[in-house]
Amino acid sequence: MSTQPALIAEGIEATATLEDGKARRRPASAVRSRGNKPSMSLMIVLLLCAITVVVPLYVTVSMAFKTQAQAVDGNAFSLPAPFSVDGFVTAWNLTNFPAAFGVSVVVTAGTVIGTVLLGALASYAISRNWDRKLFRYSFFYLLAAMFIPFPVVALPQIQLTGLLGLDNPVGVTILHIMFQLSFSILLFTAFLRSIPSELEESARLDGATTWQTFWRLIFPLLAPMSATVGIFAFLASWNDFMMPSLITSNPALQTLPVVQSIFQTQFSNNYNVSFASYLMAMAPAIIVYLFTQRWVMEGVTQGAVKG
Amino acid sequence: MTSTIERPPAAPAAGRPARPSRPKRDRTSKTENLAGLAMLTPAVLLLALFIFVPAILAFGLAFTNARLISPYPATFVGLDNFVRLFADAAFFRALINVGYFALVVVPLQAGLALVMAILVNKKVRGTTFFRTVYFLPVVTSMVVVSLLWLFMYRQDGLINVIIDRVTFGLVTGPDWLNDTTTSMPAIILMSVWQGVGFHMIIWLSGLQTIPADLYEAADLDGVSPWQRFRYITWPGLSATRSLILVTITIQALSLFTQISVMTQGGPLNSTTTVVYEAVESGFAQQETGYASAISLVFFVIVLLISVVQRFLSREKA
């Protein structure tokens, strides 16, 4: 959060380059900043925007640690005194938090891995066989799915997953992968263009098969884009509400957001309990994000969609 | 996105040396063929099974009287569902609401995200801090954000408390979500708050692809910041722009979670949406056929708008 990670990030950006120099350019920002003293008005705008984010988060955290009596005293901004974890205990038991959290973790992890693997494989096959009709048409076919949002197919989807015995987190994972795939393939194919084919040709001359070339050479080179695709898949899957709520038939196997929405009515006026439960739902993703934000930002900005 | 699709994403890009011709290495090329197909097939087949087949089923169901749980088999009813749909006042209200939502959210969120991306891209002290903070709502699920804002939007909630303090008690905030005039704007404000960080990051990634030497040259020529934006940044972002436009629009048209958690379409249908209506009639009323008709109309709208957007962004490019 301080400036130090930024400096480290710059160092990494400068050293970590792809084998060929031309695929990388200096970040434009490095130049633009020259002689541009940060103006006061700019800082104020940035700070105001940050405040709109920080205030609700602060209120959530402080409410969660209050006792029930404090939570309803009408002063949302006051610090909790004394600190109380009663809210967490009640919310934990009421929502059966560990189960919902576990389901969410499994679904999200499956989605991230599945999206990256399926997307990278398909994109590699497409981009290296672009001169063949079959692969070219497959590309447009895969992209076409982007224009079919989940709500359009929701109803038959419920019957289909029920029929296949997939009305559970496994089915939700598969569907999450499917609805991430188009976007991921778009990102991967764009990135594969920047990887020179000379590299692969030399690997081929050394006798590597297509699979070996992919796993040993291409997949590692795709890492920044895999990070981007993985982050998008993580966000979409972890935060999704509609798909699990409609697809999963057994309420005990619901993901965290769905459980949150089911139990919201039961908290009634126990603000400390409801905010503790919101915080428990938010915290894992936020903590993971705070620790990985350097790679998140780097991954996303490096794996840019090149025009 | 347009230009990304248009251009072949692969080897035959300009200036690449010709790849070794296939006929010479017959044996290798055959296994290569198989490997290529093996890599592609899972994605193609799974997508067919889980997206395209259901899509076709949805279209079929729209012309039947299928119900979610029913002892009778579904029968073909022709255009009955559509006739009923176009006489349904709630559906029209939903169309208007979604149109209103999209028309405000798409430019507002995309524009705000671009401004934030440009600001955050400058090497101002604490850039990392701002990037991190702006992205926090994005890693918070929409359900939790909705529940949080439900509390903030109450008559005695946080937002009205702030309004009261800032104006020294002169202005009393409305009962945001229970007032037909403020319910939709309240949903819009919250949605932009949650989503803007995500699109800021996508703009930011686009900004990284603009070559630095263009800005260097511009600096030497002494151009104004506006010219710099108008003639370097804006054209340089064309691919990113189409991508962001398409994703925000489809997201906005699919508005559902916020509505389901916060207002259930109320008050007086002032926040009901097309997707919410489809889910309501599909589940609460269990009318699969009718709900599929709504989905079909929704799909046509998404497709039409996407085509128009693509057409417009192609014109400019």
TrEMBL record, chain B:
Alphabetical UniProt keywords: Cell membrane, Membrane, Transmembrane, Transmembrane helix, Transport
Annotated segments matching region Disordered: 1-29
Membrane topology: Multi-pass membrane protein
Family matches, as Gene3D superfamilies: MetI-like (1.10.3720.10)
GO BP field: transmembrane transport
Subcellular location: Cell membrane
Domain named ABC transmembrane type-1: residues: 95-309
The keyword Nucleus appears for this protein: no
PROSITE patterns documented for this protein: ABC_TM1
Pfam families named in the record: BPD_transp_1
Major localization listed first in the record, in broad terms: membrane
Transmembrane spans: 34-63, 98-120, 132-152, 184-204, 243-261, 290-312
Gene Ontology cellular component annotations, sorted alphabetically: plasma membrane
Domain of life: Bacteria
PANTHER family according to UniProt: ABC TRANSPORTER PERMEASE PROTEIN (PTHR30193), INNER MEMBRANE ABC TRANSPORTER PERMEASE PROTEIN YCJO (PTHR30193:SF37)
Family per similarity comment: Belongs to the binding-protein-dependent transport system permease family.
Name of this protein: ABC transporter permease
Taxonomic lineage: Bacteria, Bacillati, Actinomycetota, Actinomycetes, Micrococcales
